[in-house]
Description:
Chain A is 32% helix and 24% strand. With 790 residues, chain A is an alpha+beta fold. The model of chain A is unreliable at 1-13, 363-391 and 460-625 (pLDDT under 50). Chain B has 2 domains: 52-221, AhpD-like, CATH 1.20.1290; 272-315 and 322-491, no CATH class. In chain B, the strands form 3 sheets. A two-stranded antiparallel sheet of chain B has the order 1-2. In chain B, strands 3-6 form a two-stranded parallel sheet. A two-stranded antiparallel sheet of chain B has the order 4-5.
Amino acid sequence: xxxxxxxxxxxxxxxxxxxxxxxHLDAPANAISVCRDAAQVVVAGRSIFKIYxxxxxxxxxxxxxxxxxxxxxxxxxxxxxxxxxxxxxxxTAATNGVVVTWNLGRPSRNKQDQLFTxxxxxxxxxxxxxxxxxxxxxxxxxxxxxxxxxxxxxxVSTFSGQxxxxxxxxxxxxDYFTFASTFENGNVQLWDIRRPDRCxxxxxxxxxxxxxCDWHPEDRGWLATGGRDKMVKVWDMxxxxxxxxxxxxxxxxxxxxxxxxxxxHHLATCSMMVDHNVxxxxxxxxxxxxxxxxxxxxVTTGIAWRHPHDPSFLLSGSKDSTLCQHLFRDASQPVExxxxxxxxxxxxxxxxxxxxxxxxxxxxxxxxxxxxxxxxIFFKRKLDPAEPFAGLASSALNVFEIEPGSGSMSWFVxxxxxxxxxxxxxxxxxxxxxxxxxELGRNQVAQTWTMLRIIYCSPGLVPTTNLNHSVGKGSSCGxxxxxxxxxxxxxxxxxxxxxxxxxxxxxxxxxxxxDSSATLIxxxxxxxxxxxxVPTDYLLGDVEGEDDELYLLDPEHAHSEEPExxxxxxxxxxxxxIVDTPPGPEHLQDKADSPHVSGSEADAASLVPVDxxxxxxxxxxxxxxSRLPPDFFSALVCDMLRFYAExxxxxxxxxxxxxxGERVRKDxxxxxxxxxxxxxxDLLQRFCLWNVSxxxxxLSTSRAxxxxxxxxxxxxxxxSHCKRPMxxxxxxxxxxxxxxxxxxxxxHVVKGLFVWCQGCSHGxxxxxxxKWLEGSSHCPAGCGHLCEYS
Amino acid sequence: MRLAxxxxxxxxxxxxxxxxxxxxxxxxxxxxxxxxxxxxxxxxGQGPSRFIPEKEILQVGSEDAQMHTLFADSxxxxxxxxxxxxxxxxxxxxxxxxxxxQHYLLQMDGPLPLxxxxxxxxxxxxxxxxxxxxxxxxxxxxxxxxxxxxxxGLENAPQKLQNLxxxxxxxAHRPWLITKEHIEGLLKAEEHSWSLAELxxxxxxxxxxxxxxxxxxxxxxxxxxxxxxxxxxxxPSVSNYCICDITNGNHSMDEMQVNSAGNVSVSDxxxxxxxxxxxxxxxxxxxxxxxxSQEEMASRFEIEKRESMFVFSSDDDEVTPARDVSRHFxxxxxxxxxxxxxxxxxxxxRVQDYCWEDHGYSLVNRLYPDVGQLIDEKFHIxxxxxxxxxxxxxxxDTSMLRxxxxxxxxxxxxxRYDDYDYGEINQLLDRSFKVYIKTVVCTPEKVTKRMYDSFxxxxxxxxxxxxxxxxxxxxxQAELLYALRAIxxxxx
Lengths: 790, 492
């Protein structure tokens, strides 16, 4: 300790200066180490062993320690370390298992001092005692650690890790006798240098090899370890059991870890493979590195802080044959570039969204209504003057509440469950589905089904009265004019992928936010929607995107909003052309219903629906007369499907696709179909409509979809006796050697479907139980429970 | 689902069972069914391996609990109990890891579609004319919906797979020639390009099947009954046809006789074991004493590497590949043999600069998650597997011998361990053993029963299978190291 402090005082006088710089080495480096005067660095590798002086502007080669003509494996270094007490003393670990010490004070050209050939395998690491001048420790692939006294010719003591290779050894900086070693099997051991017989403590730190460790320079108990499992962990060893206090997840296996001087929570890492950068992490912020040095073009193999009390100079050596000095102030800080955002759904569907204040501010500046309606709450964190972190910015939190009753998707669930998709003639399917839609108040959809029936089934079968009735009903209870209420009543469609909905998302969330009375909402909505064509959106398809709030604050999308408003308008004229043909009337009607688009007031709207109902009938008659082939309409039907899909109603698109089958399939490209199917299946699964989704998968003709229900079909079961997973077979437990599930009726093992009573937990083959319970209401096992089968 | 597949595979299952039954009564009469007019296939082989007498191999039904679970797992995963499994069960610990890895590679989530995986398996096995594996995977390939047209040759497969042909060839015979240009060519081929993840999957599959081909030949695995060459419809009356006659014709009746002749020198071979043990002891003791100079060590490696080129069996007769297999490869001439004749120089690969544990693992696990872990475990088990026995001796530390074998194989591929004295190899591995190793690893299709019998004559069959496990894992690692190093170089 005393010596340590002397070193410190000796150095505190001179202030380090320099700049970010690099120099080219002749060969890849394996390790680097800094002299205690912070003015020299040694670089070692398979075919390089040189000392460089670190000058103001550049590295200057000072000494080449590879002397002699013959290449020797003793010089092929896996690691190098410079004594922190003695400027002349160095040690290297060779790949052939030799530990070499070097004395720079020797007058001859060859500075090699001593050679220890005790290890049988590659030596991975050497380490000098921080305060003792003559003690050297080595860790080797053969699983042994050896402690050498440089005054003697051989090792003083040998420590056996009782396992495979040692990857790192480090003397504790604070505890004189303690050192830590890390192993290929994921263990970390703590040893007392006086007790070579067994380790003081051992624990498993990582899954897979632990490549490196480093003691905290100030905090006695902290040890950082880095492993192949891409983690850096900080352990508190002061307690009885080693406790993991911090964990940083990196993107590649961690080759080296070094605590940053004077910064309690910072450490530098570099990785073994793939990733070439050097990172400095704040262990309390384990997700984004505090600083990043991107100079190297190949993996970094050695890192060292230039001075034990200066946090701003980092040296690194790399496989790309360069030696770099990084200045902390030149580091790139990923935090600055990141846009921290958080999004979370509440239990009752509320949505909270937090983002950097600056991002929200620009958004609200552009859209005047946003600022006052979102109830923003601003958090400002007081900056710690001791922290060099500038990245901590204030953030804004928005909470979007959901009106009770809105957001209900019951229509979706009902529709999905009640639609008939196959197994009956087309006409019946269409009729059935139209009926379902009508009962759920989705008249537009109902009309569509009816019209599909007219198009694809022979027209003679459609009684005019029926049609009349449906149309009349449709127009009478048609889409309500009070569109602001409508907006809320209509259930949003989850997961619709159409970008069109983004604009709706905006307005909707605004509306929903308000917890004031309904009238207020109406007013505001009218104001709001006046200028935009949002109403066309929700009147055409009664589905809205809810996920789209995600995009709310995304500046990029916000800018592109304008051109996207155009899209529904594009779609609309298209529909206009269809006005003369059967699907037309409903759109006419829609148009009439929507005062904002037509530009007219309610009186105009009230007239139009009557017209449309007549027009439909007349047109359908015309159809009967002309007997146009169904093919004639397929383009229109396809347009219609696309339209529904774009509105977010993939349910309709997919259902029609399945019902019509071959009739339209060829006109829509495979990928679009696949996309619709996956969206719809995804939706169904979110609503736990497994049966329906499976039916859809089965009925789909797309290969990619139909193979969906053949993937991941494994069912894992646990044994009912020992609660262990039954890995090999589903009905016999390997451990307790018992058959897990016996049928209470036939007393055989159930290998397939097992049904059981939730009251008495007896059960058996589905068939048997069904049969049994038809005749008796008691449990077949005779336990007296009155089982119910539903 | 597992239940359902079990039903599907009832066919294969019944075959497998009948095969087992058939083995026991090989040559016995099973003609009573003939009156039904059904032609009943009869197994041709004598148990799972042609090299190992059937009675030495564990009989299904007599296994212990652990093995039973393994068999059950294997059956559930593959729908059959193949001969490889039956031979590997000598070492259940390894078998478990092996099956898990293979199952993951072929059936679990991965970047490549199922039929591609089997097709790559076929491509790899075909490089070594291993009709056993090819037949097995042709069935699987068709089973998962592969296009039968592809089986007419690589040129009928998609361009993407054709591009892989070159890598397959180099990897199988001269992995040290793989450069990042090979990788680049695969990854940047317009619409036929591979993704990195797919490529790693493919590379793992290729290496897996190259080495599995080595095992198949190295242990003389007999064809499955439902595959070509595994059965006959000939009535059993012609007694001598029991000995199966597969494609390579490596084994024939006379070899059987050679074997019996070889058994005469039992006493010789006894001394063989003693001598080997003595040498191991000596090496252990004198290692500390005499320390060879650096140049000496380097030259020992070079000598071993160079010599390994010339270690070849004398009977170098041309093997005519079976017709069904040959269609999968373009030029049969490209083999390991070529370069040994021309004495091509193999560059040295320093394992300390790129090793599996640090580098290979990280790369594989990054691009094809979990597989790195599985392969790592497999390497580990294979390398560390020991029962501390040697022939009739117990409590022997065999680590030195295992390391010598492992490093010898890597040496043949030019992979050098800085911390290993290659002089040890010469001491521990005699010539006939080296011939066997060399043949199994480099030209497995040329392995003969004579080779199998002539090395380590006193050792048990299970120990010879153990050696084979070391061989195939070392080979797989060597190939993987070269391929992964090229990928790493491409990425940087």
